[in-house]
Write a structure and sequence with these properties.
Elements lengths: L1 H7 L5 E6 L4 H17 L4 E6 L4 H6 L7 E6 L2 E7 L4 H10 L2
Parallel strand pairs: 1-2
Antiparallel strand pairs: 1-3, 3-4
Helix pairs in contact: 2-4
Length: 98
Amino acid sequence: MDRFKELIQSPKPVLVDFYAEWCKPCQMMKPRILDVAERIGENAKVVQIDVDQEKELAERYHIQSVPTLIIFKNGQELWRQSGMISTIALLQLLIDYK
């Protein structure tokens, strides 16, 4: 939990993907998340959190469904969405919050 708090304090945007292994939409999003991470490079951070392994973290951030994507910057939640989203839309959001 402390490591996560430190991570989201970044001055660069941090995209957090709250997912579960058993979740079909999460499995469909995984290649998109990896693509975003590769394309965005050093301009942002991309992190995946398994809600079954990090239940306390999922509760703290009120994750009710997966996948839920959140963008943080300087410890502040700037954007949140549950469900599918395109690679291009995610990249644009990260660029906008840069």
